[in-house]
Amino acid sequence: AKEGGRNLARFYLPGMNERARERLALVDAMRVALASNQFELHYQPQIDLAAGRAIGMEALIRWRHPQHGLMRPDRFITLAEETGLIVPMGAWALRSACAQAVTWQAAGFGPLRVAVNLSARQFQDPALPAMIGAVLRETGLSPRCLELEVTESLMMDDVEVAIVMMKELKAMGVRLSIDDFGTGYSSLAYLKCFPVDVLKIDQSFVRDIEHDPDNAAMVAAIISLSHDLGMRVIAEGVETPAQRDFLARRDCDEVQGYLYSRPVPAAEFECLLQAARVA
Ligand code: C2E
Ligand code: CA
Ligand code: CA
Ligand code: CA
Known about the structure:
Blueprint: H1 2-8, H2 18-35, E1 39-48, E2 53-65, E3 69-71, H3 77-83, H4 86-106, E4 113-117, H5 120-123, H6 128-139, E5 146-151, H7 152-157, H8 159-171, E6 175-181, H9 188-191, E7 198-201, H10 203-207, H11 213-228, E8 232-236, H12 241-249, E9 254-256, E10 264-265, H13 266-278
Parallel strand pairs: 2-4, 4-5, 5-6, 6-7, 7-8, 8-9
Antiparallel strand pairs: 1-2, 1-9, 1-10, 2-3
The structure holds ligand C2E and calcium ion (3 copies).
Ligand C2E binds at residues 44, 60-61, 72-74, 77, 86, 90, 93, 117-119, 179-180, 203, 236-239, 257-258, 263.
């Protein structure tokens, strides 16, 4: 499929519509980008509400494009998934996130945990556990400091296969979280079968928490449900003190959002860690 994709990208047929041409050009550019280090990770702190400080960070990919500047993942992730490029791109992201976490741990910032997003395509790859094992060995990161975020819809694609994969990853000692929780469907019945450690409440629920009683009720229910099932729960997209206070009152374990920091480049994130250490 990889070879096919490569050959295809060379044919700019005259009848081909503009959009298809653009897509092929973008795929070509992504291959170049991967080979020439144009991708980078930005980090967003994850705050433990009880401890009142960052105990980890989520790594979010960015493309520093020579012409278009900094590109957010919504511009290229879907295409990377469709073409399979997400597999080497995801491996690169995992490797650099783990290496960065080890660097910060060695600098004395504590047992920081790093969360990395996995796409469906990676999750369906039987070589995934071996790849993750190799990255952990090579970087020296403790497996319990690595959290893998998978979406609810990804797990529902083929529940049986997903459970086998999750069990294999859990056996390695890494943490698993369900990203965008509440946006998929019918997962409640399966939730107890998934060996996950953390639920991440989708930002669409958090956004209206103060004004929409339905969303507030949903969030409160998801927090209780997580705790009843022995999981931790993190709310993303927290932008206001009122949202944070609501979540704290409801015993949410962790929060993440612009209220604390936008995702920032590694050097900037280190400044945040430094400031927290001094404080
Ligand atoms: P996600 O995993 O659900 O990540 C959360 C998104 O919300 C991020 O967008 C983040 O920048 C944004 N965000 C964080 N706090 C706030 C807030 O307080 N308010 C608002 N409005 N937004 C907030 P981003 O970085 O553009 O990433 C978009 C999506 O791209 C991610 O959604 C994830 O699905 C995907 N992605 C990012 N990096 C990777 C990666 O390395 N691999 C894979 N497979 N997917 C990735
Ligand atoms: Ca995520
Ligand atoms: Ca999310
Ligand atoms: Ca999302």
